[in-house]
């Protein structure tokens, strides 16, 4: 049976009924595969700065980078909901910039956008939603604030921080967000946030009590050099790729490749 297209409404209706599984993807072939595997949402994350472009954090990812990767993923025509990250300083500078930049991501094929932050981006989220652009929030560790945080740290250990996370989640819900990513927060705090709002929460490094989970595809496939401790590696693709390419190199060097079957169609 053909899978039905996942919409923002589908994701919202899943809260309390079915756990939501999301994953990142940054290119056409990976998007096809994760979609065939049945994920509910594909995030073209600005984590592509680290996973694909080799930067140390997400701060140097530009809107142009995002547009190229969103368009590639959109060409896979996924049934999963396609969400695009809004990169650093493409929404913080005001509602007008946020609308202009989010609309470019939508025209490239995104079906929703994800800026980082809580109460401080209420107006941005509210206006995007008001003008037809669905928004997924992102609270807890906001990697775009890595410099002021002094590193990728867990957020919400103090009572004050935990209270702020709940306030942030409520503000995003009120602004019109359809779901919220909670990153690197103690499990008990993520649970309290999840229970305090009506929209789904999607955890990464925040325990099992959210309405869904999201992971970075490179961590799942074993392609990350130093993966975070909360990410499960489902396959060691790095070894598989290294072994396959080493075999190819060896066969080229010893003349085993190409054997006759690989040049039978090539006329001399
Ligand atoms: O950029 C990204 O991949 C993300 C996920 C970690 C949620 O924001």
From TrEMBL:
Cofactor binding, per record: Binds 1 Mg(2+) ion per subunit.
Binding site for Mg(2+): 46, 85, 116
Enzyme class: transferase
Pfam families reported for this sequence: Pantoate_transf
Pathway the protein contributes to: Cofactor biosynthesis; coenzyme A biosynthesis; Cofactor biosynthesis; (R)-pantothenate biosynthesis; (R)-pantoate from 3-methyl-2-oxobutanoate: step 1/2
GO biological process: coenzyme A biosynthetic process; methylation; pantothenate biosynthetic process
Domain of life of the source: Archaea
Gene3D superfamilies associated with the record: Phosphoenolpyruvate-binding domains (3.20.20.60)
EC number: 2.1.2.11
GO CC field: cytoplasm
Positions with a binding annotation for 3-methyl-2-oxobutanoate: 46-47, 85, 114
Secretion signal span: none
Localization annotation: Cytoplasm
Recorded catalytic activity of this chain's protein: (6R)-5,10-methylene-5,6,7,8-tetrahydrofolate + 3-methyl-2-oxobutanoate + H2O = 2-dehydropantoate + (6S)-5,6,7,8-tetrahydrofolate
A GO term, aspect molecular function: methyltransferase activity
Protein family (similarity comment): Belongs to the PanB family.
NCBIfam families for this protein: panB, PRK00311.1
Self-association and partners: Homodecamer; pentamer of dimers.
Name of this protein: 3-methyl-2-oxobutanoate hydroxymethyltransferase
Organism field: Vulcanisaeta distributa (strain DSM 14429 / JCM 11212 / NBRC 100878 / IC-017)
